[in-house]
Amino acid sequence: MFVGDSFTVGSGPVPTWGSYASETARLLGWQPVIAGAGGTGYVNKGRVGRTFRDSFETELAWRPAPDLLVISGGHNDRRWHTLGVRRAAAELLWTVRARWPETRMVMVGPIWLDAAPPKAFAVRDALAEVAAREEVMFLDPLRQRWITGRRAEVLLPDGVHPTFAGHADLARWLAGALEGAGLAGYQGP
Predict the structure, then answer these.
(1) Phi and psi dihedrals of 63, rounded to 5?
(2) Any idea where the SGNH hydrolase-type esterase domain is (predicted)?
(3) Contact 92, 56 (CB under 8 A)
(4) Domain ranges of the chain
(5) Per-residue pLDDT reduced to its tens digit, 70-80
(6) What is the Rg, in whole angstroms, of the alpha carbon atoms belonging to the chain?
(7) Which of 27, 30, 32 lies closest to 10, judged by CA?
(8) What is the CATH number of domain 2-180?
(9) Can you give the pTM of this predicted structure?
């Protein structure tokens, strides 16, 4: 399962079935359940009026426990104080653990395909700190070089969201990271 923002659920001409979350699932042979909404974050409620924790509780918590939950975002939390982001991220992890104690979790930090503002790095650092403290794997998209002379191919005209090709790049990166960490295959009974 995935919970996240517009990068996770798709935006503009890229629907949910074309998002990096869906493409990661295809690459790994998974049946995904994808929750969240554009503009949302750990603290930021976006236009839909809910946080990642709200999306988890509304869209996912009532379902059977998944093998893995990928929590992806932070992009929309850059206007909030990192103390609030830390607290909200920790509370989401605690909520998931209380509901699904055996489910493995991975946190993916804020996604910026182009140059990220300084606040994005502060959010990334806050989330990485929470993940380390809670013993959850943290993946950092800000460390990647997404645009290498092909800006129009991977980035929508809004300069923020990925195209289908940009989502495919994100999916290859995430699938590779999950495989490298031994989290890509089914580990059931």
Answers:
(1) -85, 165
(2) 2-168
(3) yes
(4) 2-180
(5) 999 999 999 88
(6) 15
(7) 32
(8) 3.40.50.1110
(9) 0.95
